[in-house]
Amino acid sequence: MIGTFYTLAAVARALDARLTGTVLADAYTQHRDELRLVFDTPDGPETVAVALRPPAVWVDERAVRARRNTADVLPDAVGRTVRGVRVADLDRHVFVDLDDGASLDLALFGPRPNVLLVHGETVDDAFLAPAAFVGTSAPMPRPARLPNRPDELGPRFFPTFDATMAAEASFRATATGTPLLDAAEALHREALASDTAWLYGNDAGHAEAFSLVPLRHLDGRQETRFENVLDALRVFARRRRTDAAVARKRARLAERLEAATADRAARAERLLDALAQPSRADAHEVEGHLLMASLHAVPPGASSVTLAGFDGTTHTLALDPALSAVQNAHARYDRARRVRAARAVAEARLDDAVRDADAARALRDRLANATTPEALSTVEIDAAPLLREAAPTSRDERLPYHRVDLGFGYEAWIGRSAKDNDALTLRHARPYDLWLHARGVAGSHVVIRVKGRTDVPPDPVIERAARLAAFHSKAKTSALVPVVVTPRKWVRKAKGSPPGQVLVEREAEVRIVPPEAP
User: Can you tell me the distance from the alpha carbon of 207 to that of 426, in angstroms, rounded to the nearest whole number?
Assistant: First the structure.
């Protein structure tokens, strides 16, 4: 219930006590769909994190603004004094009231959650897509209508309930024999008045549920009680983020191990098929013997000869006219030796392929049981040699970009086509790589591969990459072209958009450069 009205009401009460009278000192973002608000308090700076997907608000005491890959947002709100924090009645709107009648509206609902700077009834600025919101009417809270009769209960009983609260209401009603509506109303009142919180997890320490009330239907799970809802939310958010990172890492590793297993199994199948064919080594050797036994019957310079075999049959042998009969015989012997050696190598490779396929399956099984970051890292280390050997090398598995050296140890990756642009940006580029594109025209996506999260490429590197982006665009014949430069994490794909078309949420820089060929 981390994003429910009840949790947001408890958060608003806690923040109102801590932030009233403080000054908003900074507002920035360094993760997609997550805003950081820094307040100057008597005890020092306090950072409130606001996540939009999934919705959550918590105080992050460990927050430190990174040197790069961050962006300032809501500048007109910075420097204002907080007059109070409140929540809309029965709706997921949290308001941070500021001086001069302005407020920050944390609208954590609907298909377009956002944080809006509102003055009166008009939006002055927005965290995400400000151009679409500025000047529009501020969204109005819509209080949920609570049911009064059993026949009005919906799938989650109360519109303010989530699946966890619905399960708890149903459990309590069944366990106590209470009518479902009465149990739901009692749970509603209990959650609305609570300022404490409970976290539930499994034996591996994974976060399973957050609640403002004890969850009797989760008896037997690991349970931790917090006197302060903000402390509980901070711990839960950290655990959830760790769990999500582990899940993403496990999924990527599972996909690679699956591919490695299939690759080794296919290789073993091909080698088995090859080894199942009769060996030609004996036939080559017999032909050599026939030539040596019939040297007198082989005329010089002949391109073929028909000889009687040792079993009474006749054999027509192709010859190299530039070689003597003895040399042709020795060529047959050499060929027999090479075929036998190749077969021995194929048998050894078959053993390796079978062993590697078994190892990949064993690693895949270990991965399924790796429930902690430490166990997952161990599997990843053990799988590294196998996965390196399984890297794609065929022309059919070509990369969706070509590389251009930018100097200073950096290179640019340039998309080959519209479809390849999507693959480059969304699958191959890392969130902290720099992304470039000619502004306002079609063209290739260009990515500068940086050396780490805190690495900043030299200005000549960015300038050269910008010129390449200008050249690989429809504006390549222009004298000067504006080129967007931004971290890749601020680039996303809109649902249903055509290949190669993306949305840039934050433009870190725009450079005006002449196009330059690679």
Answer: 28
Determine the residue type at 322. Answer: A
Range of the domain at 213: 150-227
pLDDT band at 393 (very low <50, low <70, confident <90, very high): very low
Which residues, at least 6 apart from 381, have a Cβ–Cβ distance to it below 8 Å? none
**420, 401, 419: which is closest to 411 by C-alpha?**
401
Residue 21 gets the label, from left (phi > 0), alpha (psi -120 to 50) or beta, of left
Q: What is the sign of the dihedral through the CA atoms of 375, 380, 381 and 383?
A: positive
Q: Which residues pair with 200 in a beta bridge?
A: 209, 223
Angle, CA of 376, 382 and 384, to the nearest 5°: 100
The DSSP-derived string for 245-298 is: HHHHHHHHHHHHHHHHHHHHHHHHHHHHHHHHSPPSHHHHHHHHHHHHHTGGGS
Whether 139 maps to a domain, the answer reads no
CB 393 within 8 A of CB 364: no
Beta bridge partners of 386: none
Q: How far apart are CA 37 and CA 74, in angstroms?
A: 10
Neighbours of 261 (CB within 10 A): 21
Which CATH number do you get for residue 52? 2.30.310.10
Angle between helices 180-193 and 163-176 (to 10 degrees): 130
Mean pLDDT (whole number) for 472-488? 93
Tokens representing residue 359 in the block: 């190892």
Model confidence pLDDT, tens digit, residues 130-154: 989 999 999 888 899 899 888 888 8
Statement to judge: residues 375 and 405 lie in one domain: no
Please give the structure tokens belonging to residue 44.
Answer: 């020092």
For 39, 48, 50, 82, 272, the CA distances from 101, given in Å and listed in that order, are 18, 21, 22, 11, 79
pLDDT digits (tens, 9 = 90+) for 355-374: 888 888 899 888 888 877 78
Quote the crossing angle between the two packed helices 281-293 and 325-368, to the nearest 10°.
Answer: 170
Contact between residue 441 and residue 387 where contact means Cβ atoms under 8 Å apart: no
pLDDT for position 485: 95
Name residue 342's amino acid: A
Q: Give the chain's largest Cα–Cα span.
A: 115
Number of independent structural domains in the chain = 4
Q: Is 237 helix (H, G, I), strand (E, B) or coil?
A: helix
Q: With 90 as the cut, is the pLDDT of residue 40 above it?
A: yes
Q: Are 31 and 73 in contact (CB under 8 A)?
A: no
Same domain, 15 and 104: yes
Q: Is 374 left (phi over 0), alpha (psi -120 to 50) or beta?
A: alpha
Residue bearing tokens 């053990």:
382
